[in-house]
Write a structure and sequence with these properties.
Two copies of one chain form a homodimer. By secondary structure, chain A is of the alpha/beta class. Chain A is 39% helix and 19% strand. A seven-stranded parallel β-sheet of chain A has the order 5-2-1-9-10-13-14, sandwiched between helices. In chain A, strands 7-6-8 form a three-stranded antiparallel β-sheet. In chain A, strand 11 and strand 12 form a beta hairpin. In chain A, helix 1 packs parallel to helix 2 and helix 1 crosses helix 13. Chain A is globular and about 60 Å long.
Chain lengths: 316, 316
C-alpha cells in the first residue's frame, strides 16, 4: 500500500507541530490538510481562522513557535491602539497577522469561498501542501460553561479555559457540507492521518460536518491517529478537561476508543506504553514513540512512524 | 444673532484645517460637524470613512498634518505584509489607523448605526465636538473617467486624480436620509458653515442626501461658506478639475454661485479679492482673508471671520 497522497485532519498547534515533520518525509505537494474551522470567529469585522492560520504559518516557516500563535517577530501596534478605544481587545491581533485576516475577509466579502481563499493564502505564503478548511460553511464550536454559553475563543483565550465545561455543541452544521476537495482528498489518499489535536474541539468539528464521518469510516483501513495526550496530559490546552466534560476517559485509551470507527493505526507516547495492550486489544495496530514533537526531529520521527505503521507486516 | 451652536458641513483635510481654528474660538462642545461619507469604502473587509477619520484625527490632535491623512508617527507593518500577499494594496492602512477601521467595522457588523459608531470613536479619541456622518446609509461617490467608472478613492488615491472626469454621480441616495441629529443640529444652529472643502465631491454628497438641501436652503440666512480655492487653485486635490468637469467656473465666484441658494456669507482669499465685487453683487456678505489655513493662527483667523461675518452690521 502506498502512503501517498496523504490527507490529514488537523486542528491548530498540535497538528502544526506534527505537520512540520510530515512535510520533511513526504513531498509536501502530496499532503492535503483538512483543517478545523469551528474555532473561527468574526472579530472587529474581520474573519479569523485560527487553526488554518496556525497550520499555514508553521508550514510557511513564519510561525511564532514558542508562543504557539501568530507570526514570529510580529508587532502589536494596531492591537495597542485598539485597546485604547475598546475593552474588546482580548484576542490579540499582530500587525503582520492582520494582513492575513484582511486578505481573507476582503476575499470572503467579494464572494470567494473559504477553501479558495485558504488556498490563495497558503500559496502566497509559500506553503506547498494543500490546506483546506473542513467546510466553506460557517460552523461554530460553542461551550456551555459555568461562565455562560461561550464561543470557543471566548472560553480558550478570554477565559483562559478556566470555566467548567458542561457541554460542547455546534451551530451551522445543518447547512454545511465538506469543502470542495475534501472528499476527493480522502478518497484519493493512500493514508489518512488524524493529527495529535484536541479530539473534542479540533477533530470533532471536522467529523461533525455532514457526510464527513461516513467518508472517514469508509477510510478506516487506511487511517492512523496520533494521540494528543502524553501521560494523560495535553502538551497545551484543555484536552483533558474537554474529554472529561464529554465523559471520555482522558487518556490515550480514551482517545483510541473515540476513534475506533475511524482508524486502524494508533501512535501513542512512550509515557503511555502501559495502555498499549488495551489499545491493541480493541483492534488497533499500534506504535509507541516519544510524541512531544517539540523539535523537527521528533516531529519527523512520529510522522515517519505514522506513515509506515500500516505498511509494515502485521504483528503475529 | 448668536453664532452658537454651530453646524459645519465638512469634507476631509480642508475642513479639518479649518475646524482646528474653529474649536479654538468657540467651545468645541457647541460645534456639530456633518461629514461627507461619499468617499467611504469597503477595503479588505473593513469599512473605511476617510473624511470622518480625517476630521476626528485632526481634532484629536493625532493627525499626520503634513501627510494629510492617517495618524502621526504611524507604522505600516500590516500594510507591508498585505502587499506581500496581494496587489490590492494601493490604499494605505497605518497600523494605528487600522484600530479605527477595526473598531468601526466591528460595531457596524454588530448593527450599530454609523452615526453612533462615529460618536463613539470621536469621544474615545478625546474629540469634544460632535461628529456626525451626513447619513447612516451607504452613499457612494463615483466618477466616470477616461480610466473607467471609478470609486472616488480609486480615482483619487489609486489613479492620483490623473484621469479626465466626465461625470460625478452617486449610488445609494434613494434609500438615504440624513443621520439622526443632523436635522436638529442645522435647525438649532445659530450659524451654519460650509467648510473650505471640495464643492463637487465633499460638500455635494452632503447636499444630495434626500431632505438635506431643503433644510440648508431654509438655513440660508445663517449660513457662511468658506472658499476652498486660492487664486483659482486648490490647496490640495482635484477641486479645480472636478468643478471644470461639472461645468462650474473654477474660482471663488464659481463656488459662490454654486452655494447661492444655501449661504448669505462668503469668505474668500485675498488672492481672489478682484472677484469680491462680483460675489457681493449676487447677494453675499463677504469677507476677504488669507485662507491658506496652514497653521492654527490662520485657521483661527478665518474661523473668527466666518463666525462674525453675519453678526456685523450690514455694509451700507
Amino acid at each position: 500500500m502506498s502512503a501517498r497522497p496523504v490527507a490529514v485532519l488537523a486542528g491548530g498547534v498540535g497538528a502544526a507541530r506534527f505537520l512540520r515533520g510530515l512535510v520533511r518525509i513526504l513531498p509536501p505537494e502530496e499532503i492535503t490538510v483538512i483543517g478545523n474551522t469551528g474555532d473561527d470567529m468574526w472579530w472587529h469585522g474581520l474573519y479569523i481562522a485560527p487553526d488554518l492560520d496556525t497550520v499555514i504559518y508553521w508550514l510557511a516557516g513564519v510561525a511564532d513557535e514558542s508562543r504557539g500563535w501568530g507570526v514570529r517577530g510580529d508587532t502589536f501596534t494596531a492591537q495597542a491602539a485598539l485597546a485604547m478605544i475598546t475593552d474588546r481587545s482580548w484576542f490579540q491581533l499582530g500587525d503582520r497577522d492582520l494582513a492575513t485576516h484582511l486578505y481573507r475577509t476582503g476575499r470572503l466579502a467579494a464572494g470567494v469561498p473559504l477553501h479558495r481563499v485558504t488556498g490563495e493564502l497558503a500559496e502566497r505564503l509559500g506553503v506547498r501542501s494543500r490546506i483546506l478548511p473542513m467546510s466553506d460553511a460557517r460552523i461554530e464550536t460553542r461551550l456551555k460553561t459555568d461562565a455562560g454559553d461561550l464561543h470557543f475563543q471566548e472560553y480558550f483565550v478570554r477565559e483562559h479555559w478556566r470555566p467548567a465545561v458542561h457541554e460542547i455543541y455546534w451551530t451551522g452544521l445543518d447547512e454545511a457540507s465538506p469543502a470542495p476537495g475534501v472528499a476527493e482528498a480522502i478518497e484519493a489518499a493512500g493514508l489518512v492521518l488524524i493529527a495529535p489535536s484536541n479530539p473534542s474541539i479540533s477533530i470533532e468539528p471536522i467529523l461533525r460536518v455532514p457526510g464527513m464521518r461516513a467518508m472517514l469510516r469508509a477510510a478506516r483501513g487506511k487511517t492512523v491517529a496520533i494521540s494528543p495526550l502524553i501521560g494523560g496530559r495535553a502538551v497545551k490546552g484543555p484536552t483533558v478537561e474537554l474529554l472529561r466534560a464529554e465523559g471520555v476517559r482522558p487518556d490515550a485509551l480514551g482517545v483510541a476508543e473515540r476513534y475506533q470507527d475511524l482508524a486502524t493505526g494508533f501512535v501513542l507516547d512512550t509515557a503511555d506504553a502501559a495502555l498499549a495492550p488495551s489499545i491493541a486489544a480493541i483492534g488497533y495496530r499500534i506504535a509507541v514513540r516519544p510524541t512531544m514533537l517539540d523539535d523537527v526531529e521528533s516531529a519527523r520521527d512520529v510522522a515517519s512512524t505514522a506513515v509506515n505503521l500500516l505498511r509494515e507486516p502485521a504483528a503475529a
